[in-house]
């Protein structure tokens, strides 16, 4: 009997969700998980069977932070929506959330339409879009509402960095955060002090430091920590939840923790790069190697940073993971051979995130497989309000599934990865635990090391506002924590007279 590709039975594995793991078979039909349990009965005989004995069956990864084919710093990221999402699937990620990011004074709606036009014909997996607010005006204020109510966007990113390009002033941040709060959206920030970076960059060049090491030295981690704390402070003044993208340093992580300790609704997103490598690479004698690691915020030269961030991720002080995947080849990075300020910022990660986090988190003994699922999939689905459609192995959820072999290993290399970029910041890392079968929309797209995808088969996933995990506390505080005036008798005493102007 011929197999029916609409039907899939994953048999004999251990299902891992964020809350528990258990032995069960998983039956999928028409892209949806229909049954989860042991010894399932009354299944169609023509279903394709995947043997998962001795392996984990987990919800597909959700990468919360990508930049595919991004026009940036005079060039365009080399991994587009086809090669990027194909690589994502190869690594066990079945959904990505990319950023609509354009120049000041351009319509947010026009930028959104442009990104949809780029992505829809190419994506191999499901995807969604954040929208960056790089300028502030009445038009932005109005278009944010259209994006939320009509376009399926529930998150907006603001920059405290990239002065004169993307950066908003503090008063503009206040207004944009207030608008996110009104709309039930997640306010995200790239947290670095743009004024200090501009001054630091100029200083490095004046000192004759033009190589990649200057990139880190002009924006040390204190600059990231200050901006993180400032963003949390501003957001708290309008009772807006805040999401710190790409937490790269101890200073930024500590600011996130302080915000949580002070009762603010804060989410911290470390990325594969900050968890898997460090900024000592900027001092490598090979310019190409050093430049290959240039990103913003930069990796930190303190080699204990990745383990520190992983510890915080494991115990819940940091929340979920992305990659900030934004890739440029050697000839593109070479735009900055004489001036580090011209090196296009960005690194890889979309394909290797799952393996790197498993290696540094689960294999090292810092987190269990349930926490791994939470930080790579479930929490992202909850924060961005697509749970339980995504992020869980459960009846009725999308059949985006990874069969994970904890005993398999591989060596990460640019020679073998599926991304278009010619460099890999994790080059030579041996990882223990890899995806052996990946299912997207109920179809096997990765098996036996082969990736079989259809260009444009991915769907845009709209995300409604007011995610419960984000806004339940916010809405309750609005009810019970409003400022109250003090009722008192009017003052009737003397008042001095000020001299007239």
Describe the SSE topology:
Blueprint: E1 4-16, E2 21-29, E3 32-37, E4 47-51, E5 56-59, E6 61-66, E7 71-72, E8 75-76, H1 81-90, E9 93-100, H2 108-119, E10 126-132, H3 138-150, E11 155-159, H4 170-183, E12 186-190, H5 194-206, H6 213-217, H7 221-236, E13 242-247, H8 250-261, E14 266-270, H9 272-276, H10 287-292, H11 305-315, H12 330-333, H13 353-363, H14 369-383, E15 401-411, E16 430-440, E17 443-447, E18 450-451, H15 468-480
Parallel strand pairs: 1-4, 1-5, 6-9, 9-10, 10-11, 11-12, 12-13, 13-14
Antiparallel strand pairs: 1-2, 2-3, 5-15, 7-8, 15-16, 16-17, 17-18
Helix pairs in contact: 3-4, 7-8
Can you tell me about this structure?
It is a single chain. This protein has 501 residues and is of the alpha/beta class. The chain is 32% helix and 22% strand. It contains 15 helices and 18 strands. The strands form 3 sheets. Strands 1, 2, 3, 4, 5, 15, 16, 17 and 18 form a 9-stranded mixed sheet that branches. A 7-stranded parallel sheet has the order 6-9-10-11-12-13-14. A two-stranded antiparallel sheet has the order 7-8. A hairpin with a 2-residue loop joins strand 16 (430-440) and strand 17 (443-447). Helix 3 packs parallel to helix 4 and helix 7 packs parallel to helix 8 (250-261). The termini are far apart.
Write a short abstract of this structure:
It contains 15 helices and 18 strands. The protein is of the alpha/beta class and 501 residues long. Strands 1, 2, 3, 4, 5, 15, 16, 17 and 18 form a 9-stranded mixed beta sheet that branches.
